[in-house]
Amino acid sequence: EVQLVESGGGLVKPGGSLRLSCAASGFTFSNAWMSWVRQAPGKGLEWVGRIKSKTDGGTTDYAAPVKGRFTVSRDDSENTLYLQMDSLITEDTAVYYCTTPRKDSSAWLEYWGQGTLVAVSS
Amino acid sequence: QSVLTQPPSASGTPGQRVTISCSGSSSNIGSYYVYWYQQLPGTAPKVLIYRNDQRPSGVPDRFSGSKSGTSASLAISGLRSEDEADYYCAAWDDSLTGVVFGGGTKLTVL
């Protein structure tokens, strides 16, 4: 059974940093592409970014609002996905979901974690 | 403002058929598959329709998807109270090099 468990959310001040983790199990993590999707309170879904598997180059792509501030990385030895968030702004307040995009279509997000809440406030 | 356009709300009575539209452009829906996600209150989204019109196992055949040009739609027939949820369309976008979502449609079963 595929399981994705996010952690690391919390309250942070504007300008601060936070690192989210996503522990994956039930599939071959090293072969998988992974992505983050967020949802601001009472709002819709917003794609944050993705990382390909190392065999597919390990490259990353980001949504415009987070590019240059957020970094997606992975540790295949620990089956863990990370989201390093720097220079946080209030608009980054959201539930952050770890997801598994299909390689043949990154909009096909097959599995989702339960999400972790990040609140950016002074 | 979302890249894909959906109506913010839709409603119907039990047993009715409702459709939810999703409008995009040539860089997303016009060139790539469309996906639909259902988000029940307080839960993570789940895939409802993949590759425009395919249902994952376990999704009732009351749910169907279609795509034409730069638009897509989700139809729900035989509406049930448990269908009350938020529905999102999504597609890859070449210009943005990322996944784009619709703003979501809140479905109310009257």
Topology, pairings included?
The complex is a heterodimer of chains A (122) and B (110).
Chain A: E1 3-7, E2 10-12, E3 18-25, E4 34-39, E5 45-51, E6 60-62, E7 70-75, E8 80-85, E9 94-102, E10 105-112, E11 116-120
Parallel strand pairs in A: 2-11
Antiparallel strand pairs in A: 1-3, 3-8, 4-5, 4-9, 5-6, 7-8, 9-10, 9-11
Chain B: E1 9-12, E2 18-23, E3 35-39, E4 46-49, E5 63-68, E6 71-76, E7 85-93, E8 98-101, E9 105-109
Parallel strand pairs in B: 1-9
Antiparallel strand pairs in B: 2-6, 3-4, 3-7, 5-6, 7-8, 7-9
Give your account of this protein's structure.
The complex is a heterodimer of chains A (122) and B (110). By secondary structure, chain A is mainly β. Chain A is built from no helices and 11 strands. Chain A has strands at residues 3-7, 10-12, 18-25, 34-39, 45-51, 60-62, 70-75, 80-85, 94-102, 105-112, 116-120. In chain A, the strands form 2 sheets. In chain A, strands 2, 4, 5, 6, 9, 10 and 11 form a 7-stranded mixed sheet that branches. The mean pLDDT of chain A is 97. Chain B has strands at residues 9-12, 18-23, 35-39, 46-49, 63-68, 71-76, 85-93, 98-101, 105-109. In chain B, the strands form 2 sheets. In chain B, strands 1, 3, 4, 7, 8 and 9 form a 6-stranded mixed sheet that branches. Chain A binds chain B through residues 35, 37, 44-47, 49-50, 61-64, 97, 101, 105-110, 112-115, and chain B through 2, 32-35, 37, 39, 44-47, 50-51, 86, 88, 90-92, 96-104.
